[in-house]
Specification:
Number of helices: 3
Order of helices and strands: EHEHEH
Shape: globular
Radius of gyration: 15 Å
Structural class: alpha/beta
Number of strands: 3
Largest sheet: 3 strands, parallel
Helix content: 25-40%
Strand content: 15-25%
Distance between the termini: 48 Å
Length: 102
């Protein structure tokens, strides 16, 4: 592994068309020698033209994705050669579920 790959951090925007590719994205990051991969949730906001509603993840898709992130973290945490991160915008579904339980 060269010095540049130790500084490589892969970012991936998660949309409804690619959210099930989490395993492939992590494998690619590992193959590239990345030190981490960060997943960002696509959010339709602002005044940009042509933002697609169909790209936004449903609550069910977010829950599936978050479960898979946890599974991947458990798999790789012992090896500790890659950090698997996600942005906070995925957390709203979990918060809603916790509130309904309480």
């Amino acid at each position: 592994m060269n010095i540049l790959s130790k500084k490589l951090k892969l970012y991936a925007i998660v949309i409804s068309k690619n959210y099930r590719l989490i395993h492939a994205v992590i494998n690619d990051a590992i193959n590239y020698g990345s030190m981490s991969v960060r997943f960002t949730n696509y959010i339709k906001q602002g005044n940009v033209l042509n933002l697609e509603d169909s790209n936004v993840l449903s609550d069910e898709q977010i829950n599936w994705f978050l479960n898979e992130v946890d599974n991947e973290r458990k798999q790789y945490e012992q090896q500790s050669f890659i950090d698997i991160e996600r942005c906070g915008s995925f957390g709203l579904v979990i918060q809603k579920n916790l509130i309904s339980i309480l």
